[in-house]
């Protein structure tokens, strides 16, 4: 079902430019203005100059296209002679625990979500798709990869990269966040064929990059030559980073909800109203560390939510009652998830934050950091912070494979993929190396 192909990657010439850490950047959608300026100053060829180009209005997209052509012409970016898959490894630490996340970058034949080959796991917003489509129209290039997961319990696809990993990586850089990025160029035909064979019958779940995937579909429909059968044009293919769903290096963080703009009487009535669904208790926990420890401990037994409100010294705890009516959440695959319980049983029916408000983010803001949630509540920037455990990879996969989509911001895979590792040109008249 999932068709994989190698491609002629466009990569920074590190023999000329030096340390790749000065050239890479986080994904565009997690870079604030200060970080953007810092990346621009880190190196005049940092990928942020292409991925978040400067300029007024649509001129910024034209500027990115011009810059890309210039960098290609002057040798800043060089095209690999042989089509390849790109083995990518990230080594990092979180909360004192070391992780190694592995996968590979390759072309995936684009399929609509309705084909059930590529599965979305959460709803998206329209704004980012408009921006990315304008950039891809102007540059005809992929600067970064969509992050996808596939099931491979025995690790057959992983084994195909063993020989390549025995050699020196083409890129080895540690970015300021402490994450080490290593990448190998894998052009061996037998290894590529084995990876394609293993993934052939698989489904791919988008872990991160829904906007970019939908943008690739839209661009494909615009530029694919009419005389080409599906799959025969490079416009039919997008670049993805694909990792095993069983990879022990996968780390998913929770996305906590910060609520504002709710009538005071509605918010005040919440603890009593919540008793119809939750066991409501007041706890003494007053620090992020204490709240996190209890969330993890009690979350192993049942869906557990913590609520912080201004002026309350402790924390309000909501534990899902065993007799709660979960039918509004839909099928069993959705009923045991903290995020669907929070949205379907509390934010929507009790606080009136419906799908439209969620899409507009008019009542909700998000953070992955418990200390930040505490700070913003204490500063009066939110009426309440709803804190929860992370959604497990297995839970997300089960929901997606059953045909369901979770609320926005249901997962946050840590760390993000680096942008600028390997680029791919989108030549609609070119053909994939399959």
Question: What's the rounded overall pLDDT mean?
Answer: 94
Helix % is 25-40%
Count of helix runs: 17
Span between termini: 15 Å
Give the low-confidence spans. none
Please indicate the percent range of residues in DSSP E strands (runs of 2 or more): 15-25%
| Sheet having the most strands | 9 strands, mixed
Shape label: globular
Query: Structural class, from secondary structure content?
Result: alpha+beta
Number of strands: 21
In angstroms, what is the radius of gyration?
23 Å
Describe this structure in words.
It is a single chain. Helices cover 32% and strands 23% of the residues. Strand 4 and strand 5 form a beta hairpin. The protein has helices at 14-17, 33-42, 48-51, 59-73, 126-139, 156-159, 162-165, 189-199, 210-223, 264-268, 270-274, 288-299, 332-335, 338-347, 355-360, 370-378, 393-401; strands at 4-5, 10-12, 77-79, 85-94, 97-109, 118-119, 141-142, 146-150, 171-174, 180-186, 204-208, 237-244, 252-253, 256-259, 278-283, 304-308, 315-320, 364-367, 384-387, 412-413, 424-425. The chain is of the alpha+beta class and 434 residues long. It is built from 17 helices and 21 strands. The two termini are 15 Å apart. The strands form 5 sheets. Strands 1, 4, 5, 6, 8, 9, 10, 11 and 12 form a 9-stranded mixed sheet that branches. A 6-stranded antiparallel sheet has the order 15-17-16-19-14-18. Strands 2-3 form a two-stranded antiparallel sheet. The radius of gyration is 23 Å and the shape is globular.
Keywords summarizing the entry:
single chain; 434 residues; alpha+beta; 9-stranded mixed beta sheet; 6-stranded antiparallel beta sheet; 17 helices; 23% strand
